[in-house]
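This entry is listed as follows:

___
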Amino acid sequence: MTSEEKLGEALKQNKNTIEIEGDLAKKVLKMIDEVTEKTKDNTGPIFNICVNYGGRPEIVDTTKKICEMVKNGEISIDDIDEDLFTKNLYQDLPAIDLMIRTSGEIRLSNFLLWQNAYAEFYFPEVEFPGFDEKEFDKALEVFDKRNRRFGGQ
């Protein structure tokens, strides 16, 4: 059972209701739904926003989801591979080429762990919001000079 399903069950069992307070919260949720719908068929770069996200829970939830698929006879254990796993993550996103961390921290902090497996990392000295177009160009220059091996020699 996913985190969302557990939450739904707990809310149902306890007869809780959910209320989103404030005009801003409702406007933001409406805007998220609208922009997601309007851009769902676009083919350009992906602008991914993660809210209350963790890479470890995503991997655990994906594992449970695939186990349920095996248990229900939807797939066999031999069907499980990296491609199937990737397609069952929260979002079926392409692999990340360049991860830029503008927080001053030199770590992933549980962010997109599966998707960052072969990413190149860039930790600028300039922190957000000072990370501008010039700083982005620097990151791309560094990335351009890297020899990407994807696990090879």
In short: Helices lie at 3-13, 23-39, 55-71, 82-87, 133-144. The CA atoms of residues 7 and 13 lie 10 Å apart.
